[in-house]
Amino acid sequence: MTQPHIGVLALQGAFREHRQRLESLGARVTEVRLPADLAGLQGLVIPGGESTTIARLMADYALWAPVRDFHAAGGALWGTCAGAILLAREVHGAPPQFGGQQDSLALMDLTVRRNAFGRQVDSFHTPLQVQGLDTPFPAVFIRAPVIERVGEGVEVLARHAGQIVLARQGRLLASSFHPELTADARLHALFLDLAAAPLPA
């Protein structure tokens, strides 16, 4: 089966690592920096990084509405770490200098808390049981958010220490951790399947 054409938002953060994982699976990948870069894509990865910086750059490059429109037209979205924050309908823990508010796409029925697992020095690796995978996934958590609440249509795929860290809602996927920072490409393969799936009639 021909792999779908996937974009990786390439404004800040670990976008190169996502591109490498996707290309290792045979996907065609485009780095997205402008609205025109979304044309012809079936999926878009929003990488980890600094969510407030990515949000500001999305505003600078007029990407907010085009990304929402891309999803409304059937495009799949995957947010990892900071990207999960940007997908969430509600975000807690934004810095005081931003008035405690975090801009987001508000597409996924989640409440996410920023930096819930601590600072950079509190980063850790852990084997994670993921629904649909036969063996644990080697998850990398770096200043990771946690999913505090999921809506009725959201499927929880993994938890760590009782906290939700991976969830799916239709053609939306959110992970608190950094799957691109491991050689294990199984979650990238899952996203490719999501992006390639036919749209509901």
From TrEMBL:
<keyword id="KW-0315">Glutamine amidotransferase</keyword>
<feature type="binding site">
    <location>
        <position position="114"/>
    </location>
    <ligand>
        <name>L-glutamine</name>
    </ligand>
</feature>
<dbReference type="GO" id="GO:0008614">
    <property type="term" value="P:pyridoxine metabolic process"/>
</dbReference>
<keyword id="KW-0456">Lyase</keyword>
<feature type="active site" description="Charge relay system">
    <location>
        <position position="178"/>
    </location>
</feature>
<dbReference type="GO" id="GO:0036381">
    <property type="term" value="F:pyridoxal 5'-phosphate synthase (glutamine hydrolysing) activity"/>
</dbReference>
<protein>
    <recommendedName>
        <fullName>Pyridoxal 5'-phosphate synthase subunit PdxT</fullName>
        <ecNumber>4.3.3.6</ecNumber>
        <ecNumber>3.5.1.2</ecNumber>
    </recommendedName>
</protein>
<feature type="active site" description="Charge relay system">
    <location>
        <position position="180"/>
    </location>
</feature>
<dbReference type="InterPro" id="IPR029062">
    <property type="entry name" value="Class_I_gatase-like"/>
</dbReference>
<dbReference type="GO" id="GO:0004359">
    <property type="term" value="F:glutaminase activity"/>
</dbReference>
<dbReference type="GO" id="GO:0042823">
    <property type="term" value="P:pyridoxal phosphate biosynthetic process"/>
</dbReference>
<comment type="subunit">
    <text>In the presence of PdxS, forms a dodecamer of heterodimers. Only shows activity in the heterodimer.</text>
</comment>
<feature type="active site" description="Nucleophile">
    <location>
        <position position="81"/>
    </location>
</feature>
<keyword id="KW-0663">Pyridoxal phosphate</keyword>
<dbReference type="GO" id="GO:0005829">
    <property type="term" value="C:cytosol"/>
</dbReference>
<feature type="binding site">
    <location>
        <begin position="49"/>
        <end position="51"/>
    </location>
    <ligand>
        <name>L-glutamine</name>
    </ligand>
</feature>
<dbReference type="Pfam" id="PF01174">
    <property type="entry name" value="SNO"/>
</dbReference>
<keyword id="KW-0378">Hydrolase</keyword>
<feature type="binding site">
    <location>
        <begin position="142"/>
        <end position="143"/>
    </location>
    <ligand>
        <name>L-glutamine</name>
    </ligand>
</feature>
<dbReference type="GO" id="GO:1903600">
    <property type="term" value="C:glutaminase complex"/>
</dbReference>
<dbReference type="InterPro" id="IPR002161">
    <property type="entry name" value="PdxT/SNO"/>
</dbReference>
<dbReference type="InterPro" id="IPR021196">
    <property type="entry name" value="PdxT/SNO_CS"/>
</dbReference>
<dbReference type="GO" id="GO:0006543">
    <property type="term" value="P:L-glutamine catabolic process"/>
</dbReference>
<comment type="pathway">
    <text>Cofactor biosynthesis; pyridoxal 5'-phosphate biosynthesis.</text>
</comment>
<comment type="similarity">
    <text>Belongs to the glutaminase PdxT/SNO family.</text>
</comment>
<comment type="function">
    <text>Catalyzes the hydrolysis of glutamine to glutamate and ammonia as part of the biosynthesis of pyridoxal 5'-phosphate. The resulting ammonia molecule is channeled to the active site of PdxS.</text>
</comment>
